[in-house]
Model the fold of this input.
Amino acid sequence: MKIGKAARVVAEAERTVWTGRRVLVAQAAVLAGLTMLLLMKEVPGLIREIKIYRMTGGRRAARRYP
Done:
């Protein structure tokens, strides 16, 4: 009886242990989420900068603005 109970406890412990691969996947998911959040937050500023760049003439502006 005690052996069966001990075996169940060991089996449960093995199921709940986080392997290195699972930890890396979880870290990658968190990092990807934070990167997407930062990118979404910065998109309006990037669009504004692109519009300003286009209004000033972009790469062709060197001829007009010495």
The radius of gyration is 28 Å. Helices lie at 2-16, 20-55.
